[in-house]
Each structure stands twice: as C-alpha cells, then as structure tokens.
Amino acid sequence: MNGILLYIDPGTGSMLFTVLLGIAATLYFLAQKFILSLKFRLSGGKAKVDTKKLPYVIFNEGKKYWNVFEPICDEFEKRKINVEYLTADENDPALKKEYEYINCRFIGSGNRAYAYLNFLNADICLATTPGLNVYQWKRSKNTGCYVHILHAAGASASGYRMFSLDHYDSVLLTGDYQIDEIRELESKRNEEPKELEVVGCTYMDELKKRLDSEGCSKHEKRTVLLAPSWGQNSILCRFGEKMIDSLIATGYRIIIRPHPQSFTSDKEVIDPLLVKYPDSDMLKWDREADNFDSLNEADILISDFSSVVFDYSLIFNKPFIYAEGAFDPSCYDAYWLDEEIWKIRILPKLGIPLKDEQLPKLKEVIDEAITDTALLSGRDEARAEAWAHIGESASRTVDYLVKKYKETA
User: Fold this and answer.
1) Pick from 15-24, 334-343, 382-391: least confident
2) What value does the mean pLDDT of the chain take?
3) Strand, helix or coil at 348?
4) Residue 7 — φ and ψ, nearest 5°?
5) Looking at the domain that runs over 47-201+390-408, which CATH code has it been given?
6) Which pLDDT belongs to residue 220?
7) Which CATH superfamily is domain 210-386 in?
8) Residues in CB range of 397: below 8 A, 6 or more apart
C-alpha cells in the first residue's frame, strides 16, 4: 500500500477536538500570565494594590450590567454593609448614584482594569464577567472567593464561551435547570464541584416591578420588535436587508434593537443598514441602555438565540418568533454537553420558529404567533424552571455573600 487510511470515529474526534481546545486555552493563559508579570516588573512593581483587605468587592465590566448589580448594591446599602464597587466603564450609572455604604470607583478600562484586579485584596469578589483565569483577568492570590452571577435566565452552558466559569468558586444561578449543565461540565473536565446557589434574577425582578407599576403599553398600531444577538449567526448578519424589507412589508410599526456588541463586532453589517433604513414614523432603531420601553411597546418579538427572548416572554408574557438554526454551540460550553441545552429545548414551547423560506410571508407568521394560546402554558413552564424566587433575588444574593464572607474572612 502506498498509504494508510486513518479513521477516527466521531466520538473520538470530538474528544480530541475538546482536548486540543483545552491545551490551547491553557497555553493562552500561561502566555498572558507571563506578559502580565513582565509588565509588572518593567514598571518597577508600581501596579496599584489594595493594602487593606476589602470584605466585599463587586466588579462590573460595563454599564450594560448595572441592571444586574443595582438591586444588589441597593440591598447592601439598606443593610448598611460596606462594599467596594469597581467598574471598568467610566459611564457606569453607579458612579453618579449617591450611596453611603457603596464606594463606587472607576479603575480604568480594558487591560488597565484587569491589571488592577489581578492584584485585588478582598475576601469576596462578585462579577458577571466570564473567563476568570482564562483571559486577561487572573485570580489574585490575595482574594479569597470569586463568585459569578449569571446575567440572564437563559444563560449557563449556552451563554458562555468554553471554560468561562471554570475558575470561579461559586456561581449564583437563576433557576434549577442550570445546575445539571454546570455539574456535567465539571464532571467531564474532572473539576472540583463549584458551590451553586439558586438566587433568581435581579434585573428580571426589577423589570417586573416596573411593569407592575407602569402597566402595559397601549398603542393603536401593531408593533414588532426585532432584537437579535450578535455574530455571524445572528438575524441581521444572516438576513440583513431581506429581514428588514419583510418586516416593512407587513405594514406594522418596527423597532430594531441590535445587541450592543453588534455595533462593534458586526459593524460592517450594521452601518449600511442604519444608512439604508433610517428612523421614520414606522421604523425606529433603539440604542438605549434600557430596553424596557421597547419590550413593553412590542406586541411580538423576533430574535434568534439571544436571552432577550426570556425577558420578553417571562416578564411581559408575550410570544416571540425565533430564527431556526441560529445557535452554533461549537465555541460554547454547550459543545461539551450530551443533550441539547435547555435554552434550545424550551424555545418551541415559548415561540414560533421562522424558516428562511417564510420571510416573504412574515406577516402571516406574526399574526399566527400573536394569537397562539398554546404558548401560554409553555411560558408558565419556562418561568418556573428558569426564574426562581421571583422578587427575592437581591436579598438572596446578599444573604449568600454575607454567609460566604463569614466563612472566608
């Protein structure tokens, strides 16, 4: 024979692929650690380090997550507990809020913020930021316990890139279903089990309070909200003009709210669409940090694999349409799981799938979804599984952090 035919079965190939990814992530981590140490030595060891141990630290990477942290800060303030709130966003609303017990500080953006955090001296550090000890942010030897809080009801293995939660000590969950996904990942990676606590979802609790207070929006013209995720598999990247033209053809009022990251990562797609479809009486681009008004005004939502579908259906109790085949698990922790993730399994019970060939008949699909009463029971099921302890998440989060502080300090 002139050559040997090498066959690798799909299961073995999948395992080898994930092992190689793990090796790549480890090498990246070591390289970043070396670069950080080199910069520290070259600077004469002048990196700023907290000399006094801080009992509680909250780190926010950007203002878009303030809706997760504000209820927690308010709860700490109510209990008169001192907290250091560190932000990497100079426009973080926390910096303008008058607290007595919450000390809010801007520590710089990007690598400057992570360089500061890498020498953090604290008992407890709470964050929504994934990739601790994988990307720029490294665990500080002077910090006792790192706690991750999920920023969406649909998040977990599907919402994060590979290894994003591996180096946290604890994870605060929105619902019980997330426990099984994380435990399976830990088992397959031979990791020590993290402490998992189901606390609910802080920002969803606040949205519900606001909806209960302000009530549902009343308007004459049927309104459709297009709120996709970002990346090459998102609706605007996949369909672009074709989707917007189909929406305009319905005669309904249209609100387009791209994911904030898409204005950076998908700029070559978004910018031409902004020019071709400017704001008008029947079409509006929403770039506000607060999505409440758009969610409240819309009679139906069209999205893809964005977690906004859970905000919309579980809080506002309305149906949505989702693009089929939009989620690619290959770069997410979901790739490691044996079964299809909860976020994808639950979608048919909450909304109507949209196939590519249905775009010319989008009005019919919208009308069908709005009048489909079978979706009501699906929303009740998803709400029970993904949004625990409704109205109690902030107090339960602080209860947990106080308990951990007493164990760690």
Assistant:
1) 15-24
2) 85
3) helix
4) -115, 130
5) 3.40.50
6) 82
7) Glycogen Phosphorylase B; (3.40.50.2000)
8) 72, 75, 149, 172, 199, 202
